[in-house]
């Protein structure tokens, strides 16, 4: 098909029901759309009450469309052709468009919306006039009101007339950020990127927290986690990646706790650190990729021993999913192939041969008494490194020492 589009009309999702918060939702969605299209300066993006308009100004429609299908908070969108607001021209363009898109055996309907009430015809008159012109030019023309093959939408706006005939399904969900901020514990595995995606879907703006234990973990493992975070930016814009220096804590746990408790105590420290980072950075929730029964650290017993260190809500979006279900999503969001790259992360390096599936809380507390818990958590939090990841990319030069802001 050789139809050239001038703009894309974006319809919002669930947010249209949000009453007083509506303006906030719309602004946030517009910001997210701008972010995922930031490298295309020719686009002009405006968001109004019930829809957003993206003027293409020559940009590649297919690329813009592909990116829009991933942005949460969009119900659907329609590429449109802009034509002058004069009846002879509108008629001519409708015929030209139908020559491209309408074939024998298909049914059609015209659906007009008139935002400019001063236009010479009202919407019913327009539907009739444009329907007639289709009948005049196509001997096989057949109207059908319910589920026609082609619905031609005609919008008479203040600046021009817009014609569209396709509704492309959006990602649904809520605009990222409208539910507030959360901190995603992002490992290099399959589950945590999927958990992050699902939190984004319901409007949580995520910051990705990754624990690295150099030299026991490699730069490759760190890069992999950043690449995974980059994959998540397509759903709602830039993500702050937070690298936590975890070596001191892991070495201390290894020295002071018995094998069977290494995993549980490591997780308890991760939870403490992520909770502190969350608090300092205005997060409301912790998100992780735990899935019930998947490994020893993810039995209900382990999960409660780990969770005991915080009162902050912990969202586990994949907790009830089977591995296959998680993998299906990982493939859809294009993180799977990255996740299965073989880089040891801090848990595999220190993983005991047989972790406790039912750790006792008293024992955890007992072993932790041998350690300077507060001091180590403090140092880990002070040592975090921030990277802004945007547009599916990350740039080493953008790293900043978080300690400078404290
Ligand atoms: P994943 O596939 O996401 O790595 P997993 O099945 O390997 O999950 P675990 O290794 O037991 O599970 O980790 C459980 C959760 O703890 C992870 O989903 C993640 O949220 C968090 N986690 C584990 N390791 C790290 C890490 N190095 N940095 C940040 N979070 C981590
Ligand atoms: Mg893992």
From TrEMBL:
UniProt record similarity statement: Belongs to the ThiI family.
Catalytic activity line of the entry: [ThiI sulfur-carrier protein]-S-sulfanyl-L-cysteine + a uridine in tRNA + 2 reduced [2Fe-2S]-[ferredoxin] + ATP + H(+) = [ThiI sulfur-carrier protein]-L-cysteine + a 4-thiouridine in tRNA + 2 oxidized [2Fe-2S]-[ferredoxin] + AMP + diphosphate; [ThiS sulfur-carrier protein]-C-terminal Gly-Gly-AMP + S-sulfanyl-L-cysteinyl-[cysteine desulfurase] + AH2 = [ThiS sulfur-carrier protein]-C-terminal-Gly-aminoethanethioate + L-cysteinyl-[cysteine desulfurase] + A + AMP + 2 H(+)
Pathway of action: Cofactor biosynthesis; thiamine diphosphate biosynthesis
GO function term, MF aspect, one: ATP binding
Subcellular location, principal: cytoplasm
Domain of life where this protein originates: Bacteria
Transmembrane segments: none
Residues at which ATP binds: 185-186, 210-211, 267, 289, 298
Entry keywords, A to Z: ATP-binding, Cytoplasm, Nucleotide-binding, RNA-binding, Thiamine biosynthesis, Transferase, tRNA-binding
THUMP domain boundaries: 62-167
Enzyme class: transferase
Pfam name, any one: ThiI
Cellular localisation: Cytoplasm
Name of encoding gene: thiI
EC nos: 2.8.1.4
Name the record gives this protein: Probable tRNA sulfurtransferase
Role this protein plays: Catalyzes the ATP-dependent transfer of a sulfur to tRNA to produce 4-thiouridine in position 8 of tRNAs, which functions as a near-UV photosensor. Also catalyzes the transfer of sulfur to the sulfur carrier protein ThiS, forming ThiS-thiocarboxylate. This is a step in the synthesis of thiazole, in the thiamine biosynthesis pathway. The sulfur is donated as persulfide by IscS.
InterPro entries the record matches: Rossmann-like_a/b/a_fold (IPR014729), ThiI_AANH (IPR020536), ThiI_fer (IPR054173), ThiI_N (IPR049961), THUMP_dom (IPR004114), THUMP_ThiI (IPR049962), tRNA_STrfase (IPR003720), tRNA_sulfurtransferase_ThiI (IPR050102)
Gene Ontology biological process terms in this record: thiamine biosynthetic process; thiamine diphosphate biosynthetic process; thiazole biosynthetic process; tRNA 4-thiouridine biosynthesis
Any one Gene Ontology cellular component term annotated for this protein: cytosol
Species name: Lactococcus lactis subsp. cremoris
Record has Acetylation as a keyword: no
Signal peptide, first to last residue: none
RNA-binding listed as a keyword: yes
């Amino acid at each position: 098909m050789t139809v050239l589009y001038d703009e894309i009309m974006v319809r919002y999702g669930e947010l249209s029901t949000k009453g007083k918060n509506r303006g906030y939702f719309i602004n946030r969605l517009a910001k997210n759309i701008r972010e995922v299209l930031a490298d295309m300066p020719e686009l002009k993006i405006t968001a109004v009450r019930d829809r957003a308009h993206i003027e293409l100004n020559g940009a590649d429609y297919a690329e813009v469309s592909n990116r829009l299908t991933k942005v949460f908070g969009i119900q659907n969108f329609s590429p449109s052709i802009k034509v002058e607001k004069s009846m002879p021209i509108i008629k001519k363009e409708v015929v030209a468009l139908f020559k491209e898109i309408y074939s024998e055996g298909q049914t059609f309907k015209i659906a007009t919306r008139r935002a400019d009430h001063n236009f010479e015809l009202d919407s019913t008159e327009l539907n009739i006039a444009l329907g007639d012109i289709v009948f005049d030019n196509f001997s096989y023309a057949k109207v059908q009101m319910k589920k026609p093959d082609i619905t031609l939408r005609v919008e008479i706006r203040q600046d021009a007339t817009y014609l569209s005939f396709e509704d492309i399904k959006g990602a649904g969900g809520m605009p990222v950020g409208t539910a507030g901020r959360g901190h995603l514990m992002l490992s290099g595995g399959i589950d945590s990127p999927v958990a992050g995606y699902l939190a984004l879907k319901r409007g949580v703006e995520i910051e990705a927290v990754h624990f690295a234990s150099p030299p026991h973990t490699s730069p490759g493992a760190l890069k992999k986690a950043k690449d995974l975070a980059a994959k998540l930016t397509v759903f709602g814009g830039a993500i702050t990646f937070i690298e936590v220096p975890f070596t001191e804590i892991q070495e201390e746990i290894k020295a002071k706790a018995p094998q069977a408790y290494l995993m549980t105590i490591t997780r308890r420290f991760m939870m403490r650190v992520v909770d502190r980072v969350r608090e300092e950075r205005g997060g409301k929730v912790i998100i992780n990729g735990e899935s019930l029964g998947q490994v020893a650290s993810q039995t209900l017993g382990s999960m409660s021993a780990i969770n005991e260190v915080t009162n902050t809500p912990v969202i586990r979006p994949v907790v009830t999913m089977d591995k296959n279900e998680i993998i299906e999503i990982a493939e859809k969001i294009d993180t799977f192939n990255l996740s299965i790259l073989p880089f040891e992360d801090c848990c595999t390096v220190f993983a005991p041969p047989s972790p406790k599936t039912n750790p006792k809380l008293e024992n955890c507390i007992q072993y932790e008494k041998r350690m300077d818990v507060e001091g180590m958590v403090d140092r880990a939090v002070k040592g975090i490194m921030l990277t802004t990841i945007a547009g599916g990319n990350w740039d080493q030069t953008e790293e900043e020492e978080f300690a400078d802001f404290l």
